[in-house]
UniProtKB/TrEMBL annotation:
The keyword Nucleotide-binding applies. Residues 4-234 form the ABC transporter domain. CDD domains: ABC_MalK_N. This is ATP-binding cassette domain-containing protein.
Length: 355
């Protein structure tokens, strides 16, 4: 395993500057996820680490060595693509060992590595089958196994599960996490699926427009998003948002025309000013629901929709033109809601940055 250090990276595709002055530090043995919407630059960044994109500037170091302009074969990486890219005329065993055979690896060593990878990925009974005889999930296991036998310093995954159905994605996600623990390898994984990111990552980098918006543990990012983009990108349903201002007269409150909430205990990074325009965010699981608004801190709002999700329900309230989602575990009818003040986030309305 090896660390990956990216400093001031610049990637330009044609006339389009996709990444500009990007920094990223990945510790040896970490599982890092690059998360973001389509076109945010996450795959471009991954391909740059792999050497498939030329750097216009900056530096990429792998295991302490400068690999900015090294050929992909010299970088000590293994790349797993979204498509399986298996040779249709070769069986599983030969697909997994193809790269080793081309490099002249001794036969006994090839057999040892293939056997170990097959055991990890439960491919033993499938070694003599060809890709056409495999399911989508089995094919992706073979593609991952082909990467494992290379014994690379860094494993790169470019949305490897996106072609699979929901059940298979869940199974392979669990297997990838187990595989990471077994190998202890450095892994960098690209996805637009927040569930994959939250469950797989030791740390994750949320990207937008070629810029890393926040790089931290999944829990830290979910609970304390750095800006409104991160706040709304993570979570299903997304974070509830209320536009208002800070009132410092007689305390410290967030106020709107229809709401007032004490924010005196909020951990402001800088003291707020009276009248400052802000956006308050709260996760749906931090919204309490009641049948009416008589209890202290509850606001009356008619129920617009109830979504049954199996283990819980999402109750949507209509509050003066704002849709407020609450996740509840029982069959309370709703009709009023309250915000848990200790679980809120506040953002500057102009800069969108966390206060």
């Amino acid at each position: 395993m090896a660390n990956v250090s990216i400093r001031n990276l610049q990637i330009q595709l044609g006339a389009n500057k996709v990444i500009d002055a990007l920094d990223l530090e990945v510790d040896a043995g970490e599982f890092i996820v690059l998360l973001g919407p389509s076109g945010c630059g996450k795959s471009t960044l991954l391909h740059s680490i792999a050497g498939l994109n030329d750097a216009a500037g900056g530096q990429i170091r792998i295991g302490g060595r400068d690999m900015t302009y090294a050929d992909p074969k010299d970088r000590g990486i293994a790349l797993v693509f979204q498509s399986y890219a298996l040779y249709p005329t070769m069986n599983v065993e030969r697909n997994m060992s193809f790269g080793l055979r081309i490099n002249g690896t001794p036969k006994a060593e090839i057999e040892r590595r293939v056997a170990r990878a097959a055991e990890m990925l439960q491919l033993g009974p499938l070694l003599k089958r060809k890709p056409a005889e495999l399911s989508g999930g089995q094919r992706q296991r073979v593609a991952i196994g082909r990467a494992i036998v290379r014994q690379a310093d860094v494993f790169l995954f470019d949305e490897p599960l996106s072609n699979l159905d929901a059940k298979l994605r869940t199974e392979l996600r669990r297997e990838l996490k187990t595989l990471h623990r077994q190998l202890g390898a450095t892994m960098i994984y690209v996805t637009h699926d927040q569930v994959e990111a939250m469950t797989l990552a030791d740390r994750m980098a949320v990207m937008k427009g070629g810029v890393i918006q926040q790089f931290d543990t999944p829990d830290a990012i979910y609970r304390a998003p750095e800006n409104l983009f991160v706040a709304t990108f993570l979570g299903s349903p997304g974070m509830n948002l209320f536009e208002g201002r800070i009132d410092t007269r007689g305390g410290l409150r967030f106020v709107t025309e229809h709401m007032a909430l004490d924010v005196a205990h909020y951990p402001f990074r800088q003291p707020p000013t009276d009248g400052q325009r802000v956006v308050l965010g709260v996760r749906p699981e931090d919204v309490d629901v009641a049948a009416d608004g008589h209890a202290d801190g509850f606001y009356r709002a008619p129920v617009a929709l109830v979504e049954a999700m199996g283990a819980h329900r999402v109750v949507w309230h209509s509050f003066h033109g704002t849709q407020v989602a609450a996740i509840v575990q029982d069959d309370r009818p709703g009709g009023a809601f309250a915000l848990r003040g200790g679980q809120i986030s506040l953002f500057d309305a102009t800069t969108t940055q966390r206060l």
